From TrEMBL:
Its main location: endoplasmic reticulum. This is Reticulon-like protein. It is a multi-pass membrane protein. One of its GO terms (cellular component) is endoplasmic reticulum membrane. Pfam families: Reticulon (PF02453). Residues 68-253 form the Reticulon domain. It comes from Arabidopsis lyrata subsp. lyrata. Residues 22-42 are annotated as: Disordered.
Length: 255
């Protein structure tokens, strides 16, 4: 009888151990599930922060990456300063000094050809081999790529303009009209060359400043965008919704 009691005791102990293991396993799985259901990590929350124009890529990639983006973001300060300095010199030359492009190209060509001509003759006169002037060939592929990209952009612009002209999107129509009106106002203030130079300066300053202060700019931009959306909803209710576009479309189809 005592032996049977001793045998039953280890059996009960093993059974209790199994029950404890199951309870421990259940607690660990529930704790892991609760950890899984916890709020997102700070990095995930940071990734959900509003970015200007809804971008998901860094500013460097938005600008196309590579050397042009490095120039616009001043990653190479010497090159960026040189590019901006050359653009400023060209603007001063044509806008302030009132030099003409055709005259500039002709004068540069005269100086270059005259210098090379004299250099070649001097080498011949002192019995030296003529200087090695490299042959210049314009690559065909580069022009084809540029032409193809330009064609795609123009076709897309024509599609948008056609949809606006057909009265399909009033919002785009108003945006285009306002944009063209702003460009016309700016055109009255300055000529085309000055406008291009200002755009060039903006490309060399605004992206760089935005990249440095994007954590401060994006929340402000989000608030401004929400306010604009509210104003647009009010404008839509009071003005746009009262324009009988649907009846005009129906008449156009019947006609």
């Amino acid at each position: 009888m005592a032996e049977e009691i001793e045998k039953s005791v280890p059996a009960e102990e093993s059974l209790m151990e199994k029950i404890a293991e199951k309870i421990h396993h259940h607690d660990s799985s529930s704790s892991s599930e609760s950890e899984y259901e916890k709020p997102d990590s700070p990095s995930a929350v940071k990734a959900k922060i509003y970015r200007l124009f809804g971008r998901e890529k860094p500013v460097h990639k938005v600008l196309g990456g590579g050397k042009p983006a490095d120039v616009f973001l001043w990653r190479d300060k010497k090159l960026s300063a040189a590019v901006l300095g050359v653009a400023t010199a060209i603007w001063v030359l044509f806008e302030l000094v009132e030099y003409h492009l055709l005259s500039l190209l002709c004068h540069i060509s005269i100086l270059a050809l005259g210098g090379l001509f004299l250099w070649s003759n001097v080498h011949t006169f002192i019995n030296k081999a003529s200087p090695q002037i490299p042959e210049i060939h314009v690559p065909e592929e580069a022009f084809l790529v540029i032409a193809s990209s330009l064609r795609n952009e123009l076709n897309q612009a024509f599609v948008i303009l056609r949809s606006i002209a057909l009265g399909r999107d009033l919002k785009k129509f108003l945006m285009v009209v306002v944009g063209l009106w702003i460009i016309s106002v700016v055109g009255n203030w300055c000529n085309f060359l000055t406008l291009v130079y200002f755009c060039f300066v903006i490309l060399h300053t605004v992206p760089m400043l935005y990249e440095k202060h994007e954590d401060k700019v994006d929340p402000l931009a989000e608030k401004a965008l929400k306010e604009l959306q509210k104003q647009y909803v009010v404008f839509d209710e009071k003005v746009l919704s009262k324009i009988p576009i649907a009846s005009l479309k129906a008449k156009a189809k019947l006609g």
